[in-house]
Amino acid sequence: MKSFGDIMKWRKEQKASGVEPMRPTLMGKPKPSAAELRAAFPLAPVDWGALAAPPSDAIQAVWVGHATVLVQMGGATFLTDPVFSERCSPTQLYGPKRVAPPALTAADPLLTRLDFVLLSHNHYDHLDTDSVRALNKRFGQALTWYVPLGVGRWFASEGVKSVREMDWWESAEHPLQGGGSVTVTMTPAQHWSARGILDRFQTLWGGFVVTAPAPPPAPSNLTTSSSSGPSPTSPASAPASSTPSPPDASAGPATPAAPAAAGPKGGAEPLRFYFVGDTGYGPFFPEIGKRLGPFDLAAIPIGAYEPRWFMKPQHVNAEEGLQIAQEVGARVSIGIHTATWVLTDEPLDEPPARLEAAVRAAGLPPTSFVTLQHGAMAVVRGGELVNAPPTLPVEASEKLPAAAAAPSKAKAEAASGTAVVANC
Question: Any idea what the CATH number is for the domain that residue 162 is in?
Answer without folding.
Answer: 3.60.15.10
